[in-house]
Structure formats: C-alpha cells, structure tokens
Amino acid sequence: MPYFIAFLETVDKKKDAEVLDEHKAYLKKYLDNGKIYAKGPFLDHSGGLIIYKVKDEEEAYAIAKEDPVIKYQSRTMILKEWKSTFPE
C-alpha cells in the first residue's frame, strides 16, 4: 500500500490552538485503523507532518481535507507520495 505525506504549515496560530484537540481526536481514528503510519509536530512549532498509508492519493486527500486544521484553515497542506525504505 502506498504512503502519502502531508506537510502541514501553520498559518494562523490562534485558530490552530483552538482546533488542536479536535485535530488530535480526528487523527486518532485513522491511527487506530492503520491509515496513519506516523504523525507529529515540527519542533520549531511551524506545523507538522502526517504519513498516510492508504490505497491512493484520492483517499489520502479525502482524509486530509477533513482534518480540522485544514478544514478551518489554520494550516496549509502539501501532499506528496512517499516511498518507505524501511522493511514492513
């Protein structure tokens, strides 16, 4: 199954703080069902990264666009396909 990385850049820190708990709860269901491989914030507080493990880019985009930080425009997103070189 392919991987897709969402680079999330914070553009509205106040709004981002307001939706952070909702963002974490949203991601948890995809962690639990295996559609998120890894996630986490950048240490400079500029945003974060999510690695989706899904069937195609369309599915990754569908999940990402409903993330509260994207939906409420506190972060922008760049989505790219990624190849893992780690053994599964």
Can you tell me about this structure?
- The chain contains three helices and four strands; from the N terminus they run E-H-E-E-H-H-E.
- With 88 residues, it is of the alpha+beta class.
- It has one domain (3-45, 56-82).
- Strands 2-3-1-4 form a four-stranded antiparallel sheet, covered by helices on one side.
- A hairpin with a 5-residue loop joins strand 2 (36-41) and strand 3.
- The radius of gyration is 12 Å and the shape is globular.
In terms of topology, how is this protein built?
Layout: E1 3-10, H1 13-32, E2 36-41, E3 47-53, H2 57-65, H3 68-71, E4 75-82
Antiparallel strand pairs: 1-3, 1-4, 2-3
Pfam family, one: YCII
Family: Belongs to the YciI family.
Domain YCII-related: 14-82
> How many DSSP H or I helices?
3
Helix content: 25-40%
Low-confidence stretches: none
Strand order of the largest sheet: 2-3-1-4
Instruction: Name the helix and strand elements from N-terminus to C-terminus, one letter apiece.
Output: EHEEHHE
- Estimate nothing, just give the exact number of structural domains: 1
- Mean pLDDT reading: 96
Anisotropy-based shape = globular
N- to C-terminal distance: 11 Å
Q: Characterize the biggest β-sheet.
A: 4 strands, antiparallel
Structural class: alpha+beta
Total beta strand runs: 4
The radius of gyration over CA amounts to 12 Å
The fraction of residues in strands falls at 25-35%
